[in-house]
Each structure stands twice: as C-alpha cells, then as structure tokens.
Amino acid sequence: MPRRSGVLGCAPARLTHLPRGATGSRRLEMTSRTLSVEKAKRFYDSFGAAQNAQAFYEDDAVSALLERAALDNAKLVFEFGSGTGRVAERLFRERMGESSRYRGVDVSETMVALARKRLAPWNERAEVILTDGSTALPARDGEADRFISTFVFDLLSEDAIRSVLMEAHRILTPGGLLCLANATPGNGTLGAMVSSALLCVNRVSPSVLGGCRPITVAPFLNGASWRLVHREVMRSWGISSEVLIAERV
Ligand SMILES: C[S@@+](CC[C@H](N)C(=O)[O-])C[C@H]1O[C@@H](n2cnc3c(N)ncnc32)[C@H](O)[C@@H]1O
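Above: inputs. Below: predicted complex with S-adenosylmethionine.
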C-alpha cells in the first residue's frame, strides 16, 4: 500500500524556496543538476521500454492522479512526455469516454515509436508527436481540457518548468485541469533519506537517473493563472511523489 502524507503540505529536502517578485511566486533554487535536452533525448532513446520498470514506485501516484482528473468527460487530453505510452494506455482502458481524444508529445524517437505501437488499438483517437524538446507545444489555444505530465517535470530545468506551465495554460480551456505527478522530497526519516540519496546521485551524475531529482512543483503555480484543486505527497517503495491537480483560471 502506498503511504500518503501531507495533502497540501510537504517539506522539501535540501531545496530552498526563495520569494520571487511582487506576485509572491517562489523560486526553486535547486542544488541539483539537469540534463540538456539533447542528453535527455539520448538517454530516453536508449532507455526505451526499460522505462516501464519504473512503474513499481510510480504507478500508485499515477493512479491517484487519474482518479482525480475527471477524465470521463474530457474532450482532448494532452500529455507532455508520453514515454512508452503506459499512462495513455490506462487513459483509454480505464478512464476516458468513448469520444475523448488523446495527443501525446515526446522528444525521444524510441519512446514515440513505443507509444504509437501501444496505442494502435485507439489510433483513430490517439496521436503521438515527436518534438524537438522545445516547450512550444503542438496545440491550439484552449484546445485541450486536460494537460497531463507524469515524471517529466522532475527532469526539467526551472526555466523549462515555467515555459511548459505557460504552454499548458495557453493550451487548456478555462476550467481545464493541469494534472501532474513527479518525484518530490520525502517526509519522515525514510522519505528524507531516500530523497537525499537521489539528490546525491543526481549531483554526481544526473544521467544515472535520467535527469530526475526530487522537486516540488506547487510553488511554480501562479495563483492568477492556476487554482490548486488537490495536492498530496505519497510514498511507494521509499520514493515520494507529488500529485497535483490545478484548474486553469
Ligand atoms: C521518466 S520518463 C516518463 C514517461 C511517462 N510520462 C511515464 O510516466 O511513464 C520522461 C519522458 O519525458 C520525455 N522528455 C524529456 N524531456 C522532454 C522534453 N523537453 N519534451 C518532451 N518530452 C521530454 C522523455 O523522452 C521520456 O519519455
């Protein structure tokens, strides 16, 4: 059973949040390292289907996210960083209505090929697009009503996180939902120890973990653009994940 803790509350380990600007938004000063887009692409091109093995600690967070994302009446679900298509397959099998459409994007050719194959049974309603890793996303203003990204923000730089959130805001219709899950600093002794270990590995060699490190995304959400609907931190196999749903204002 996953351990759930700190709904709307999480103490970041070894990360410092500093006030930034008159809006009160906060700046995450990370002592961690990120991969360049080219290195991330190379990593995931060679990692490929091995990504599915991460499910042992990510699935509980993904399930918690999908439970709250009100997907049955979604018209277009946009996914950033679709990976092998494992979340998209769950959307089609378990969550979306019969007329819901899906569009995923990913920077890795290997991942896009795997996701397209996996989603072939729904190819009339699913598309997976290869991007150059830029945060300019292929969707019209207000075209989507759900924006999902699982275990991708934790490998992005602060600037990229902000850019993707701006794009998510542009793509989503007012009232649409931003649905995110990412590795996050853990609570309690075990959670904090595991977070510290992950950060140590990240600092020595970010590519070992595919660029991932524990981060807290909630402070990036500007209150004028997003209304936080749900946030929780849950732990599975010692690794903590932040699950976050926000409504586009
Ligand atoms: C840890 S995997 C997560 C995949 C999937 N969301 C899941 O939960 O199984 C991260 C994914 O993000 C993709 N990715 C990394 N940087 C990206 C970028 N700048 N634009 C699009 N996709 C990116 C990687 O290629 C990889 O497929």
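The pocket of S-adenosylmethionine is lined by residues 37, 40, 44, 51, 58, 81, 83, 86-87, 105-108, 111, 131, 133, 150-152, 155, 210 (CB under 6 Å).
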